[in-house]
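On to our target:
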Amino acid sequence: MFANVPTVPRTRRARVLLVLAVLLAVLTPTAPALAGAPHQTTRPGAEVVDVTRVADRQVDLSVRSAALGGRTVEVRLLTPDGWNPHDRQHWPTLWLLHGCCGDYTSWTNMTDVAETDSLRDVLVVMPEAGWNGWYSDWWNHGRGGDPAWETFHTKELRRMLERDWGAGPDRVVAGLSMGGQGALLYAARHPGMFKATAAYSGSAHPLLNDESTDRILGFFAGQDNDPLRVWGDPVAQRRIWQAHDPFHLAKRLRSLPVYLSCGDGTTGPLDPPGATSALEADFNRQNQALAAELKRVGARHVTTNFYGPGTHGWAYWERELHASLPMLLGALGVDGG
């Protein structure tokens, strides 16, 4: 059937193929690469489309996610000494989650985490979770789909980091406020994924009472969002709400080291004069309830620091990160000294 197709002499054919290869190499778009970054291949799920070194030991990955509808979001890595993704060494990993209205840069911008010596043997993963994402696969009135932050973090991103970027299978997770809830949820909803969890001023029991439920619905409504997209209605979709309330997941946390800390919302030693926080007072009640429930279900590795006066602020969260690191690093088998 190819009888009428003209043939090309062998030497001329080789010349043509060489020219085509050069053109493809020149014209095919490539993302700027970090020196030593692994070769990326296209796979369903998440893929890195850009890499930026932003500071010593700090690398930002731009990640395109199927769980987020094909959008590209950022993930900041605080890398250990000697980290090189080419050498296939896998490092113990601390997932550090930001709060509502923050982003993947919050922990490095607002605390001394990048200067903390005890983290120089750990890969710290600080993923974007949306201004108001709540570490959840949104219900979207029963349709599901974008955004699916939990799927992005616990499946797509985790697998990609462990395949290509030196993350190991030993993981712990910590976070503040919305991220504190995320740390507790991920540890409870994915048994065996994390060896310990810590929540600083976390939303630990959003179904505690009407005040707590109304408050989180107010957050869900931020940026003109339909608040029922996240978990649905707290009455009609009660089971979905309970599945995202750490208090109702306490039995799943009882075998893990858990660190809970919170202030009571009154003016504390790290606050400006007269500062108060109704949000912190609410979260304090929620954390006290979760601590009591953990005790009731037989949890034996719970550390609490309900430190009294203190508002909802970074000075406390930085302090509490340091206070919880011995527990977190101990769970990883890392010397925190």
